[in-house]
Amino acid sequence: YSPTEELLDENLISHAVWECLKNNDPEGVIEVIAAHIEAVNKTQLAKKASLARSTLYHSLRSKNPTVTTLAKLVHAFA
After folding, report:
1. Model confidence at 44, in pLDDT bands (50, 70, 90)?
2. pTM exceeds cut of 0.85
3. Angle (deg, nearest 10), helices 26-38 and 53-61
4. pLDDT tens digits along 5-21
């Protein structure tokens, strides 16, 4: 069993995010995305998403990222 492997599984992450949205749980969405990001290389992700690393960390720490920031992150995973 590898939790890191599961956190890198895009299907699992997308289902978890969708369930959080259906349950009106925006904090859960951020937690799922933050857990996924913890499993990847944050420096490479920030570069690929054209975001400053500080923006990446601040967005997740404040628990209130913009939709634009979330879209950039999700696009960078693709």
Report:
1. confident
2. no
3. 140
4. 888 888 998 899 889 88
| Structure tokens, 52 | 């400053």
Count of beta carbons in the 10 Å neighbourhood of residue 27: 10
Cα 8 → chain centroid: 10
**pLDDT score recorded for residue 1:** 64
- 56 within 8 A of 34, measured Cβ to Cβ: no
Q: What are the structure tokens assigned to 43, written together?
A: 């420096």
Q: Using alpha carbons, select from 11, 58, 49 the residue that is nearest to residue 32.
A: 11
Checking if the pLDDT of 41 tops 90, the result is: no
Token pair belonging to 36: 């996924």
CA distances from 68 to 18, 45, 49, 58 (A): 18, 15, 11, 14
